[in-house]
Amino acid sequence: MDAQTKSPHAGSAGTSCVAANYAKSSSTTAYDRASEVWAFRMREYRTIDAKVAAASAVPAGEETEEEQAKFDELASMHADAIDDLMLLPAPTVGAFIEKIEIFHRNDLADGWWRASEIVAIMACDADRLLRIHHRSRGE
Questions:
Q1: Residues 32-70, buried b or exposed e (16+ Cβ, 10 A)?
Q2: Is the C or the N end of the chain the one with fewer CB within 10 Å?
């Protein structure tokens, strides 16, 4: 997939480092909502990632025009799924580790159109998760 692929959601994501943006009601904590959204986006990403991997198994030059069109559509959906997931705050250390692995596996540092936003959010994730860790240890 072309690392320069853009999502139809081009422009500022308006994302913030604050998980509270994902709170939907006073009965659901911001943490719970962020975790739910993260889990949903991760499932979407894994599903489309598996489809792209399967479609990539067709040897280059042997695909039909229809297969190529389907792959192009999958590649666009994959780019959207990456953006949708990576622009979310990671609610846990485990989610943050998954985010780092996805960043690396998809070479997002090498020309991804939203790499700078993703890196900024990952820095916020790291800062927030470290503060939580230090508080839990009474530091």
A1: ebbbebbeebbeebeebbeebeebeeeeeeeeeeeeeee
A2: C
70-108 per-position pLDDT tens digit? 999 999 999 999 999 999 999 999 999 999 999 999 999
**Closest Cα partner for 74 from 43, 51, 106, 40?**
51
Distance CA 113, CA 106 (A): 12
- Cα angle, residue 44 at apex, residues 38 and 72 outer, rounded to 5°: 135
- Helix locations, 28-92, DSSP H: 30-56, 65-86
